[in-house]
Amino acid sequence: MPYEKLEITTPTPVFSWANHPLGSDETKMAKNMASLPFVYKHIALMPDVHLGKGALVGSVIATKEAIMPAAVGVDIGCFAGDTLIPLVDGQSYPIKDLGEQDQEFIVYACTPTGKIVAAKATARLTRKNAPLVKVILDNHEEIICTPDHQFMLRDGTYQEAQLLEPETSLMPFYSHIDQDGYTLIAQLYSSKWQKADGIIARSGLLGKVDELDNRPENLELIGDRIHHNHKVVAVLPLNYTEDVYCLTVPDYHNFALKAGVFVHNCGMSAIKTPFTGEQLEGKLKKIRLDLEAAIPTGFNENKEVEKSVTNWQRWSDFSDLHRGVQDLQGKAMKQMGSLGGGNHFIEVCVDTDNQVWLMLHSGSRHIGNNLAQCHINTAKGLAKMAGNKLPDPDLAHFVAGTPEFQAYWNDLQWAQDYARVNRDVMMARFKRIVEKHLAGGKATKPLLEVNCHHNYAEKEIHFGEDVYVTRKGAVRAQTEDYGIIPGSMGAKSFIVKGKGNAHSFCSCSHGAGRLMSRNKAKNVYTLDDLIEQTQGVECRKDTGVLDEIPGAYKPIEQVMENQADLVEVVATLKQVLCVKG
What we know:
CATH class of the largest domain: Alpha Beta
Radius of gyration: 24 Å
CATH architecture of the largest domain: Alpha-Beta Complex
Shape: globular
CATH topology of the largest domain: tRNA-splicing ligase RtcB
Low-confidence stretches: 70-76, 209-227
Helix content: 10-25%
Structural class: alpha+beta
Number of helices: 11
Number of strands: 33
Strand order of the largest sheet: 26-22-24-23-33-31-30
């Protein structure tokens, strides 16, 4: 449905997709948000909007030169306009030119197993006048990008450009033209060259490709062995700014540069597996018990820290975080790969085509919450000293260009990276457990992977201007962005693709949204209600999760109907297994 402009008197208007009147407390909170002098254009309220702390959950706030530390997020790394991107047509194009096309194209991406594949992508302008660094490689290539853009390391993990050190090995991308005019791509997993025609044909993205030479002999791996990596020589800060661009690659979240390396593209995570619903029969309880044994929930943490966690390179930056969390590194390491509580979940779902999906929702755990509280307290202290009369103390903010703003921005980037890796560690365990029960332990390739953040801030361009966008309980839904909108346990969930609605600041809801508080749900509903409302779902059925009963949430079908102008549905999922914190 289209939004409605709320009939309230505020310096900036409030647009709502909720399709129902706000309660008195919700209206007051909307007024408070819209009265802030640095709010840009309007406030956007998503269909799942409900009361939060300071700001409404399900709200999108764009601001100029200020930000409220009410959410944890990460900026988008990007590239200078003349950065060359190799496409599968054998040519390389400046990323700026691709961004001005406003259409899909096909790039090279790297899978978790190191296999190079063809993938659909789009490009866009992401920031104006952005600070830059120059990354110099040992193949004499130079890459101009923002300091925070993530480069893929040789082991498949990512590191920001500004944190790359000399001799760091990056995931390499090699291509050349053979004597017969074929484009050859180095397949790192096999250490051989493969004809690009074969990669394209096997991707299925172009359907039946008559113009490519796809004879069987041209789909085989050929000859020369490869033993090289690309290494970093230096990372140099630049004394000028430029408009910058980035790609969105929904299926793989990375892409190759002509310079010869792979980089990351710009919550929740879900993967579509090759398994079908029939394969789950009789196995759901065993899978749930294994998940509960392997992934700590609530306030719990891992007894041991696995290697993938200790190898995370951003632990080296822990000493740069707020002094109030300096005694928490050990706990943060043990909690990486844990679920948490509240509305966090791990779910096995089946879509309308009977395909099995794995989905989870988690964040930056204890360390992220503590970082947020430290900065919120700092912002409140500054507001008090300045004599600022805010309508709500939780709307205290930092002004761009101040040391406090920079410290907060640094910490929220770290925390958002932590949250992403936390989900990656859990999803890897989750996938292995499901593969143990459904494939005898054999590793499988996801058919689609989706990752999206909420409760975060980004610097973006809207209505032609650079703004800070805080999505509190909302998901980015730019054109072609994939997203996840889960319902309550026992309800449906949706995989969606954004429509890029400018009035919502290219956003959508992050779920169904609560109808009642947790305490009210415990008083209204009984254990029998929970058992009835989660019928057919393998999950805990005890009073410890009564506050998460489906009846405490808005009907997800209505929420989806209210945002039909924000997203299109790619897949409709039904939960068959749910693990709650």
